Amino acid sequence: MPYTSWRGVVGLVKPTMRPGSLEEFIRLLPEGIGVLPLFLGIQRGTEEEFRGVLKAFEEKVEELAQLKVDLVHPEGAPPFMVQGYKGEGRIVKEWQEKYRVPIVTAGMTQVEALRILKAKKILGVTYFTGKINDTFSRYFVEAGFDVLAMEGISVAFEDVGRLSSQEVYAHTRKAFLKHRGADAVYMLGSGWRTLDIISMLEQDLQVPVVHPVPARVWAIQNRLHVRQPAKGYGRLLEEMP
């Protein structure tokens, strides 16, 4: 293993060619953790596309396993959430047995984060609209949460990264005030650039916020037996529970 990866190597399967979340992820990772990213070509962001991309994910998982990474992280919650919480679990178990490598999906890191933060009633915000948000809600209900709503913001899938964090803050705050009683906010998708509003939302709404990028950094550190808190990105990384 190269000296620069003395704390372990994680292999990523990125669902899109979209820049942003990979850079954010690497910046938040502790020094000494290596990253090997592979990419798929999801473009439309439809449920049909998410359901049809599983085989491509598996091929990348196999490739990373052959490279002998310490952990494989298939990113992109929707392609696995459409399989259902239990369906995702069966897929991951099968791949781990087949390729002999630990695997954690985006959805798994987010469920773990919500549980460790003792969330029971969650409010989700997404950059999807329509029935697919019901699919995301069912995933979390199946995982044991009470989902008050999964509020989508209307934006073209390819333009998600152009949303300002202030727009997303306003959308999230409005949804939170509309659906009283949430003890955590869940932000689905790492396509939007919103790391800068996590702590602000937690301070203003007085509940923890689970964002995909800090959630994966936290979960990967746990699996590699690393514990390096980071300030400014919410309770999860600040407290490293």
Q: Could you tell me the mean pLDDT?
A: 96
Report the span from N to C terminus.
29 Å
Major sheet size, sense and barrel closure = 4 strands, parallel
Outline: globular
Question: Runs with pLDDT <50, length 5+?
Answer: none
* Percent of residues in β-strands: 15-25%
Q: Tell me the number of strands.
A: 7
Major sheet: arrangement of strands: 5-4-6-7
Instruction: Sketch the topology as an H/E string, one letter per element.
Output: EHEHHEHHHEHEHEHEHH
Q: Which structural class is indicated by helix and strand composition?
A: alpha/beta
CA gyration radius, whole angstroms: 17 Å
What's the number of helices? 11
Structure report:
With about 240 residues, the protein is an alpha/beta fold. It is about 45% helix and about 15% strand. The protein contains eleven helices and seven strands. The strands form two sheets. A four-stranded parallel β-sheet has the order 5-4-6-7, with helices on both faces. A three-stranded parallel β-sheet has the order 2-1-3, sandwiched between helices. Helix 1 crosses helix 10 and helix 6 crosses helix 10. The chain starts with 7 loop residues before the first strand and ends with a helix. The mean pLDDT is about 95.
